[in-house]
Amino acid sequence: MSLGSSSTPQGFSTFITNLGIKDTTDDFVLIKSDVSCAVDGVFTQSLFVGPSVTISRRNLKDNQAQGIVVISKNANVANGSVGIADAEEIIQLVANETGISPHNILIASTGVIGRRYPIKKIRTGLLGIGKKLTAADFNLAARGIMTTDTVPKLAARQIGNAKLVGIAKGVGMIEPNMATLLAFFFTDAAISANVLRSIFRPIVDKTFNCLSIDTDTSTSDTAIILANGLAGEVSEQEFARALQEIAHELVLKIAGDGEGATKIIEVTVDSALNYAQAKTVAKAIVNSPLVKTAIYGADPNWGRIAMAIGKCENELAINPENVVIRFDNIKAYPNILNEENLEELRQVMSKDKVNIHVSLNIGEAVATVWGCDLSEGYVEINGKYST
Q1: At which of 221, 238, 256 does a domain end?
Q2: Which of 146, 170, 344, 350 has the fewest CB atoms within 10 Å, counting from its CB?
């Protein structure tokens, strides 16, 4: 989608450019609010985080922020004290140019690990940016944070007089253990930091934390929401519903743009003992390379779903005799599929979005997760990623 000015929350401005981080596409995004914002953020649980995560965690402690810097195509991870110094310098440069306190600037970075920023190019490129800020263009911002993404990812909603927009990037190294890749939300609704946190984190858990492309967790995963309050108060319930819709929309966009992906996979597990069990089983299915490749080839080998469920060896309450496996409305297990049934299943698995439904029949909990198929394209992209 393309976001028009009528859908843009008030009080935000942007500066997007190419600083020569890796290639000639935009690689630097600054999103600034006219006033300080209530803010919440969640980050990767990786033990190998970069300075962007460390610094943003620190700067979020007072629940206030006024700007976000995003650098794409270089993660600035595993660069030791030099990487930290470079990230701190970039924040200070932005602070000097915009008048924002360094402690109110957050930073995110994504791309190749173990490469230092071209800091001299960045210093030159940031001169005078305070005068180059323009009315917020979230379409360009969504494009500027891309790495191997093929399309920008953004979504927007209106809540009363307020607006909410979300942008995200991510197509690989996605098995979130907190939030996801990079995702940023901006609103002019007046929401306190405490309320923002109570709404944001459960939604992240049920959307971005239910997304998987390749079972690998990034060192730089960051999800942040800023509310500057300029449009006044809104219904908390309506705000939560709008945020849920945007997050879900972005998750589907990411799954559909997974590296080498040709299909979205949606797995729902119901009748589980609890949500954790339902999610464990669903993730085992969506993360299985054999399931992913079967869906890529539209191979009606439904037994791979049974195999994936069986790998959840700690879920001792699961009894295969109670389990029901469906693809759309086709019951694959328990059933004896004839050639006609298998051809119907092949047709279902040929769709752009493949829905797998598993009922454990031991409880009432439900979880839904999303992912994509696994094609030769994934190997091609990641076999040459750093070169």
Answers
A1: 256
A2: 350
Whether 269 and 252 map to the same domain: the answer is: no
Say if residues 145 and 73 touch (Cβ distance below 8 Å). Answer: no
314 within some domain: yes
Residues 21-42, mean pLDDT to the nearest whole number? 96
The pLDDT tens digits of the residues spanning 243-265 come to: 999 999 999 998 888 777 899 99
Distance, CA of 144 to CA of 122 (rounded, Å): 15
Question: What kind and span of H or E run contains 237?
Answer: helix 236-256
Contact 325, 332 (CB under 8 A): yes
Q: In terms of domains, do 169 and 299 share one?
A: no
Stretch (H or E) spanning 202: helix 193-206
- Largest Cα separation within the chain, whole Å, is 70
Give 170's pLDDT tier (boundaries 50, 70, 90).
Answer: confident
Q: Report the number of distinct structural domains present in the chain.
A: 2
Determine the structural domain holding residue 288 and report its residue range: 264-382
Q: What is the pTM of this model?
A: 0.89
Residues marked as catalytic = 180
Give the C-alpha separation, 273 to 362, whole Å. Answer: 6
